[in-house]
Amino acid sequence: METDIHAYILKEFDKNYHPDSIYYLLKRAGFSWITSRSKHSK
Known about the structure:
Blueprint lengths: L1 H12 L8 H7 L14
């Protein structure tokens, strides 16, 4: 997922950020990282 976001930023804004800084950029822009709960195996 983070590689998709990284590629999007590079394509749309012509900016190359280190993948580790993507979360920081999203947080500064007001976004939050939301994931679904994993499903129980039973």
